Amino acid sequence: MYSGPAVLHCKELLKKVIACSFDAPSPKVNEAGNRVLSSLLGTLVLYFPLEQYKSCLSYPGIKGLELWINASHNHDVSILTGPRWHIAERDEIEYAKELVNLHLTGALLDLQNVCQGRLHGNDTGKEKEHLRVIFLRLDACLRGLRSCLPDFKAIPEVSSCQNNEAILPLSIVGEAGIAIGDSKLREEAAETVHEACKFLLKERADDTTLLMLLIRVMDLIGNYGSLEYSEWSSGRDSWRVVSGSLSEPHVNFITDHHALGLRRPQWLVVEMTSLHNTWRASQSKYRPFYGDTISHVPHHITLLSMDLLNLCLQTYDAVRVSAGDSLKKMLKRFPPLIKDCIPLLTSSLKDPQAVEQSALGACMVLMSRPVLRHLTENWSSLTSFISAVLGSSHHESLKAQRAINELFISFQIRFGGVRRGALTPSFNPSECNQALTHDGLMLYVKEILESAASSLHWRYNLMGHGMLLSLASLLPDRNDVSEADVGLALRYSVAGHFLRNLKSELPPLRPISAIALLLLLGTSRLKQVKTREETLSTELQPIHEKGEMVKSCTESILVPILKDHSFCESMVHSLALDHHYSEGQGRTGRGGGRFQLASDLGITAMMPSVSRGWPRTLSWESSMKGESFSPRIAKLFKCLLQECGSSFLEVLHSPLQDVINEVDERSRQCIAAEVMAGILHSDVPCISEAWDLWLEKLLYKALMQANVESVPEWAACIRYTVTGKGKIGQRAPTLRHKILVTLAQPLPSSSSTSLIVKRLDFLLAATVELSPTFLEKEHLFQLAILEEVVKYMTHSAPQVRESVGRLICILYSNLFQSSKSLQKSLTRANYQSEEKVKFPGSSISTDWERFLVDGTLTAAAKIERHGRDSTDELSPNLAISSNNDDDESLKDSVKWMETIFHFTIGGIKSGRAAHLVPVFIGILHPLLSSQDTAHKDMSALARSTVHLLKWQTFEGTYASQALTAILGAAADSNWRTRIAALTFLQIFVYRHAYILERVDIALVWERVQLLLSDLQVEVREMATATLSGFMKGVDSQWASAFRDRILDAALSLVKTKSQSSRDIRSRMTDNGSIAPVHGVVLGLVACILSAPYDIPRWLPNMILALSKFRNQPAPIRGTVTKTISEFRRTHADTWAFDRIHFSEDQLEVLSDLSSSTSYFV
Fold it and tell me: How far apart are CA 33 and CA 974, in angstroms?
């Protein structure tokens, strides 16, 4: 391939070899000649690097190693010499032209003669073999020349010419090689191949071998630069695969050298440069025909595209796929060709006489991205496409139906609307007569669906409604006063059609209809009235007339459908079927939900959003937004009620009551919750009247009788009804306060635990959506609920305490945020401070922060005192046989602590922790001390709380306050609390190292150093780990001062002349404590372990000082042995480099510490 001028020495021999290979009777020899001719032409005319793969002599003693370079950062510029490129000389060009005349021009002449019947007459066998050889010769020449054979001439448009001067087409600079011939040769080849295509389709339509060769030749002629692009694409993919092994990494972990850039083999850099030039050559003639074309599509390209289109509709799969790939590339380069292909493609789908194979080929081409893009730009083509898809039901084969279904799904996924100005047919009179308008097309699709509703296959029923939904998305906004009355009537007519489909037995059709209704109804008439009141008087008249027209359409089309006998009942029951629950699915299992077929995903999932995102606030548990509650269905009933008013509410009363009474049917309860949510959030005038008559009682009944499985759905219903309106949710719904009052109704004293939990869940769902700027009555409501639920903090049921903790978290955070804004308006609520929220009119005289913190401190002290005084541990379930006051008080304290832990967990998970930080700081000490007690359930919950709280950030002065609380826990009398405080301190300091004051850091170091000499060995070891972590990440001056101090202390113990090792041991034995000496040793250990993978200059002295304590009693001796073992393990891989930092004496001491003591020594 890359021989260059070397082939000129045997050019005559090569000509003979190629000629003999094409004359041989063997097909394999013919194909070998094809490859030889293609490679020969490529090596003569193409640009390619010479001597790309060569070894370098820059490395002494090594032969055959290629040179690695970095073109971006290389100090030795002399080695960055570019490669030599092959540029064809005159002899090579002449030889290439000779080959082209012999095998390209000659083959075209032979092909013309064969097609005219001049060579073989009736001998079909010789004719087939001759055609095969001709096509191989053409393929070899075109494949070898690539883009060196000039492209078709671009014909400038008349409008783009000024002063009789043609505008040159915009192109990218890039050539693959020396040009051979001119564009007339490519045009002649296109004309000849076009005649050959007609001949083969007429005489040899069943010969797949010749048709495949013909498609290869047509692809090479029509798709200029496709070979270069394929070569670049394959080279890019290969580079991605091997780039990791052929690039030097930035960082070298063995030495200190860091590379400034990626070094690669020089041959690879040359290859990437050659690939880039190949890409530029593939794009050099691409742009002149793209988009709003500068030039007309050449006539020969049109001929080839139509031939390929006919081949796409052939019988054989291989022929269709190959022709389709070539045609798609041609359509991508020449988008205007798509308009000419649409009629034949759509007729292959719509024509009853069309065969299965033509439908498969048409779907393959229509599914391509250029065609789908064209459908959004040309209304006539879109009209023809929709009519063809809906009229293709006569294709009954499984393959054809699958292809049509895939085409429809692809269209729905990629259809994003029609560009502005394309909703009308083209200015071409013939197209104006054939294409329907937008309204006409919608009526056409609607009539098809209504007239053949019973006989239409379910798949086409689904397709038709999907098309109708796509067309409905192109309608203007309903508030636009410029929309004609005819268009408004059409909108409501189509809306009525989709409204009837809500009770359809076809499952995917119901969600489509719901989306369509939300899209068509859009802004309700209630919002239009409010908008009309805010409009200037000069604009009132057209808006008033538009509102009257909307009212008339609603009463004449939608209301009669809703009042139809049993329509609402069937609609509600059918929508309930969309909520599918798997057998045995419980409250905690999320995954049952709206049932939707896979084929429906392409229709509904890709449609534009027709409702604002809900819920507005964070949901940290699935029960707060329902397991299968659909806000889309809730908004659908809300829009229908706003549109039809009391007429719809009257007919909806009985079906709603029926589904609410079916308590054991989860799907019925879910649809009841969605319907109730839409009704209560609609804000229509008739709702207030119905609330007093029957709606409040029905809601309360539904909430109280809901079972455990349906509680999440009704909680989501409550949350939806109290959600604020408007873009930012600041406007309260009309019935919000009445709903809150209903939820606040007290329960009987004999209520069960499940009923209490259910009510608390509903209150939580209601309060979580209240905005910080809520009204005064809502503020007082939350204060009343707060005063009530604090009485449940010591309830006997764990699930009640969990719900109480979460609810108090939400209530307190809401009150904290609104305390400043409502300070003046709530003076009667006994506010005494601008920043503290207090309980009005209650026995609790302090603010809520102090109330929680004091109660927690008291409960924790009582539990600790009981654990210290009691000799028998409590059982996990707190089953205490005695009934004295102390035992009951202890039970209440444990329950209080568990509620506080749920309060903390809820505050962190809900994202409201920033408002509860003062409480978190106050309960931090009791929380740390509760992780290891005799009450196992409470301790497990405390550990879960600490696990979440350790990632909480304390900003500003709160960081110092939190640190003070942690250090106070580190000085607790209980050693388990001190360990918990040290564990929490490690993460706290790591996350707040850059915002803590230097005074606070000094206090931390002082406290942890004191704990090195703690009486409990576990505390000392945890203090060692804490100090080791501190020295890795804090300011170096603290670590340096500590290292100097601990080294001096160690040396003072072992280097005093009047004191031997035996004296040290005897003194420790006399004093009865080894904690101070062990603390010094652990300080050395912390310093050594702070540098696990390198050797700072102070480390050898630390190890030497540590070795002096190897003969001390336990646990000092074990600490020394364990530390040295850990040091040798972490430095084993780099010990050959690390040992140079030690002296010979230090290495000897280290060797003695690492070796085991022998009995025989």
Answer: 92
